[in-house]
Give the backbone structure.
Amino acid sequence: MATIPITKRGAEILKAELHKLKTVDRPWVINAIAEARAQGDLSENAEYEAAKDRQGFVEGRILEVDGKLSVALIINPADLDAGGKVVFGATVDLEAEDTGHKVTYQIVGEDEADIKLGLVNISSPIARALIGKEEGDTAEVQAPGGIKHYEIVSVRYI
């Protein structure tokens, strides 16, 4: 299986989620199933069905997160020295050429992406347009509203 890039912060978030799933959620579900079984007839026991559904979700998520962590290529952006080029993990300050609007994005893995926090997925159109560029370059991004041009104001590895 191919490796999946993830920042150090993203890996820590997944590890914390996995820990919570195994130490809090799983025991809670096991207890909920035991309590529902104690109520008797399981064929018409809604609490039992809900607990079993929750158990399926928790166990599935444990497998998913564990699998992602097992193939993760953890990258600490602070350790990067890409010579000013935009690479995975870089934080990029941009200015829209038409409006002068300034934005800052960090290029991260799929599981970490959150546009509201300025975290863009490595496979998103904006990240693909930025990769390999340097400060002062112009990036052309195919957006839903048409092509946007951004000037790269600065590239940081934090």
The longest helix spans residues 8-38. The chain has two domains: 4-75, 77-156. The helical segments are 8-38, 46-70, 125-130. The two ends are 29 Å apart (CA to CA).
